[in-house]
Amino acid sequence: MSIIAGNLQAVEATITDAVKASERTRNDVQLLAVSKTFPAQAVLDAMAAGQLAFGENYLQEALDKIASVAQAQPDAAVEWHFIGPIQSNKTRPIAASFAWVHTVERLKIAQRLSEQRPPELGPLNICLQVNISGEASKSGATPEELPGLAREVAQLPNLRLRGLMAIPEPTTDIAAQRAAFARVRALFDALRADGLEMDTLSMGMSGDLAPAIAEGATIVRVGSAIFGKRDDT
Ligand SMILES: *Cc1c(COP(=O)(O)O)cnc(C)c1O
């Protein structure tokens, strides 16, 4: 078995334990394999082990990788998610090459993605990134901005608002991790109570996926636990 296949099995076991502990089912949680900084071959190895959803942060690297994977496996149903910061002059290739974008934090970016989404691809799935760490993070809409942003994004014709994404401040304190994820969940529940139809909570990474699942994550974004240590971690 490849190292990546073994790592995927270990992550799968963590997810299975976490869903059991919170009386959820395995189908409630999708594993997004975050392949940033790793080559196309690493993605192909993960695909050989059955993984089909991949997250990328850096646009040019992602576009090259998507092309290489498509060439090697033209018939595979691979699903690419963009999870990095978005520059407004880079929305067109994002709209054309990804199935999901998790990091929308401004209306202007959402409007551009909607205008530039090729209609034949169907709606682009969107999560709004929310900043629950206050001043400690520059990324994400504030909890105050979120309801207005969500209502506007939900109206855009070529997008489908699916839910919220968050990256809490790193901490190894499990209670603090759970508290942060619970805040995201509360924002999500409030928007749904307000009538927005959303089904996705994108939260939890290699270091905190179990507490994220305990608080309702439906997509966990896992990089280093699958592909190994990166230079940036
Ligand atoms: C890199 C990254 C991940 C994966 O992080 P790991 O700690 O390697 O699992 C998840 N989400 C986002 C937004 C990232 O940038």
Strand sequence of the main sheet, in spatial order?
Answer: 7-6-5-4-3-2-1-8
CATH architecture descriptor text = Alpha-Beta Barrel
What's the overall geometry?
globular
Query: What is the helix/strand order?
Result: HEHEHEHEHEHEHEHEH
What is bound: which ligands? pyridoxal-5'-phosphate
The helix/strand class is alpha/beta
Rg measurement, Å: 17 Å
In round numbers, the mean pLDDT is: 96
Structural commentary:
The protein has 233 residues and is an alpha/beta fold. It has a single domain (3-226), classed as Alanine racemase (TIM Barrel), CATH 3.20.20.10. Helix content is 42%, strand content 16%. The chain is built from nine helices and eight strands. It has helices spanning 3-21, 40-48, 59-72, 91-97, 107-116, 146-155, 174-193, 209-214, 224-227, and strands at residues 30-34, 53-56, 79-82, 100-104, 124-129, 159-165, 200-202, 219-222. An eight-stranded parallel beta sheet has the order 7-6-5-4-3-2-1-8. Helix 3 links the parallel strand 2 (53-56) and strand 3 (79-82). The chain is globular, with a radius of gyration of 17 Å. Residues 34, 36, 57, 83, 167, 205-207, 221-225, 233 line the site of pyridoxal-5'-phosphate (PLP). The modification N6-(pyridoxal phosphate)lysine is found at residue 36. This is Pyridoxal phosphate homeostasis protein.
Short description:
With about 230 residues, this protein is α/β, with parallel strands linked by helices.
Keywords, separated by commas or semicolons:
pyridoxal phosphate, Pyridoxal phosphate homeostasis protein, 233 residues, TIM Barrel, eight-stranded parallel sheet, binds pyridoxal-5'-phosphate, alpha/beta, 9 helices, PyrdxlP_homeostasis, pyridoxal phosphate binding
